[in-house]
Amino acid sequence: MDSLLKEVQRLFEQQLRVESLLTISKKLQVELRERLQSSPECMLPSHNYNLPSGKEHGTYLALEVGGSTLRVALVDLSRRNRSRQNLRIRRIVTSTINNNVRDLRGVAFFDWIADKVGKMLLADREACDYMQLKEPLPMGIAWAFPIESNLNIRLDAIVNDSSAAVLSRAYIDPSTRLAVILGTGLNAAIHLPTSSLHSSKLGRREFPTSVDTTHVLVNTELSMFGKRAFPTTRWDDHLNTHHMLPDFQPMEYLVAGGYLGEIVRLILVEATETVALFGGILPFKLSTPYSLDTRTLAVIEADTDPSLTPSCRVFQQTFSMLAPPTEMEMHFIRKVILSVTRRSKGYFSAAVHALLSLLHDLDYQTLEDVDHICIGCDGSVINKYPGYMEHCQMLLDQLVRMEDGARKRVVLESAGESAVLGAGVAAAMARTED
């Protein structure tokens, strides 16, 4: 197993020197600029032009519609103030979007959402009082559809998840210019001059006269970048080839939580076939694609027991093995996981650096008044995977210093619950702009 392990470590970690990551970043910068001008799929301008002033205040209804859950919340804004919490979720209710809900046709799906909203509001005394007023309760929605109902609410803003992360973090820290989402998937949003986008990107939209439209929040669709920038291994190529959408999201397939476990699984399958891992007999459950998830990787990577006994127990239970892996096998598995996740951190940091460089090049004047650039971070991998954000912060510090020591300091900050909070902030901003 030693020879295969050395090959895995070499293939996954040889591109992680700072010089190599800078090379990847520069290739990504070229791609970012190209897609600002031409791509109909990436670098998409939103209808959110400004960042919050921090003066917005009040209570707002916020909805987040995901693939499997609906979250309805009341969000309180109490003006930017570093000495106290000024953005909080007062009440939140989560409902599962199961197959029965997905099968609803026409307005029935929106009626279901309206019912969930109404029940949540009835549970909040202050909101109930608000609902008796003539003025509708302002509402923002994260990555969803316009909703009409007989509730006393008004849809003020629609944002996608990455734009919501920018808005929620910028309400707290005015130095925020971009945000990243790294969980099962990957995305990022960035605040750029409107003039940096090709006119075709903006179509025939009528710009609102009540707001400054010199800048716009751009949904990068970052997952789609990197086909020409990132070196891959045979396991990556196998994953991509057998994916239902080959080449569609090349960066996501290498970096995001939805795929890290599968890359590790493919290596373990090869190790079983070629170097007799598990005695040459692959656990049946491990033969199923995507059966090894990121939560299991996190448990094993965080295991500091010299014998890795907790990891052996978890692995045995997860894959219904008659006997646990041996200590030697478990150390092999853990080292493979470390190599795969280190590369994820390196590639992700190179992508963030590319976005930062784009921001510096296109919007350097607006950065003169801030002493650092804050990047809002949301998603289970960036916020919860052991040591992930800290390692990326270290890499970004090294990349910034090596390329240009005079550039602004970069700070990764958690932007938890950003979809709900960002929808609330967007609704508050829309109300202020009216």
What does the model show?
Residues 144-148 have low confidence and may be disordered. This protein is globular. The longest helix is centred in the C-terminal third of the chain and has 37 residues, at 327-363. It has helices at 2-13, 18-37, 99-102, 108-122, 125-131, 161-172, 199-202, 234-242, 250-255, 257-275, 294-301, 309-318, 327-363, 380-384, 388-403, 418-433, and strands spanning 44-45, 57-65, 69-78, 87-96, 137-142, 153-159, 176-182, 186-193, 215-219, 372-378, 409-414. 41% of the residues are buried. With 434 residues, it is an alpha/beta fold.
Which helices and strands, and how do they pair?
Layout (H helix, E strand, L loop, with lengths): L1 H12 L4 H20 L6 E2 L11 E9 L3 E10 L8 E10 L2 H4 L5 H15 L2 H7 L5 E6 L10 E7 L1 H12 L3 E7 L3 E8 L5 H4 L12 E5 L14 H9 L7 H6 L1 H19 L18 H8 L7 H10 L8 H37 L8 E7 L1 H5 L3 H16 L5 E6 L3 H16 L1
